[in-house]
Amino acid sequence: MGRDAVTGWVERYEQAWRAQDVDGLDRLFAEDARYLRSPYDAEPLEGLDAIKGFWVDPTPFTMTATVIAADGPDAVVRVEVHYGGDEPQEYRDLWVLRFGPDGRAELFEEWAYWPEKTLPASAVG
């Protein structure tokens, strides 16, 4: 997948997320996709049904994304999300993605940071 294809995937992801279109995830993720909510996720979400169960979040948000790298089936995307609502929160993420031949994600790995988590654990203390 080239940068343009990855950018298109991220745009479709954001549209589905914004619309809470869980059925739209079928077009984004492979049936047996793995979704890691952190790089050390001991229990990654396995399969499309597990991803659908986790994915719904009606909190209003804004999102910007930039494709950092796209090399064959692998891509890295820098994402910034600002949630509104009663408890505003922001996240800066790196998404590490692996795509199948049909353009759907087979692996989604999230490296999230937020204002209170400014350093990795090895740099603290």
Q: What does this 3D model show about the protein?
A:
By secondary structure, this protein is α+β, with helices and mostly antiparallel strands. It has 2 helices and 6 strands, in the order αββαββββ. It has a 6-stranded mixed sheet, covered by helices on one side. β1 and β2 form a beta hairpin. The longest helix is centred in the first third of the chain and has 17 residues, at 3-19. It is globular and about 40 Å long. The model has no long low-confidence stretch (mean pLDDT 90). Residues 10-104 form the SnoaL-like domain. It comes from Cellulomonas humilata. This is Ketosteroid isomerase-like protein.
Rounded to an integer, what's the Rg over CA atoms?
15 Å
Category from helices, strands and their pairing: alpha+beta
Could you tell me the number of beta strands? Answer: 6
Average pLDDT figure: 90
Count up the helices.
2
Strand order of the largest sheet: 2-1-6-5-4-3
| Unreliably modeled segments | none
- Largest sheet geometry: 6 strands, mixed
Q: How would you classify the quaternary structure?
A: single chain
The helical percent reads 10-25%
Organism: Cellulomonas humilata
Protein name: Ketosteroid isomerase-like protein
Domain SnoaL-like: 10-104
Pfam family, one: SnoaL_2
Write the topology of this structure:
Elements: H1 3-19, E1 29-36, E2 45-46, H2 48-55, E3 61-71, E4 74-83, E5 89-99, E6 105-113
Parallel strand pairs: 1-6
Antiparallel strand pairs: 1-2, 3-4, 4-5, 5-6
Quick structural summary:
The protein has 125 residues and is an alpha+beta fold. It is built from 2 helices and 6 strands. The mean pLDDT is 90.
